[in-house]
Amino acid sequence: MISVKRLGSRGDTIVEVLLAIAVATAVLGGAYASSKNSLAGTRRSQERGEALKLLGGQLERLKEGAKDTSGINIFTGTNPFCIVTVATPTVRQDLVASTNPACRQGVGGRYALSLNRTAPNTFMATAVWDRVGGGGSDQIQMVYRVYDE
Question: Taking 60 as the threshold, does the pLDDT of residue 5 lie above it?
Answer without folding.
Answer: no
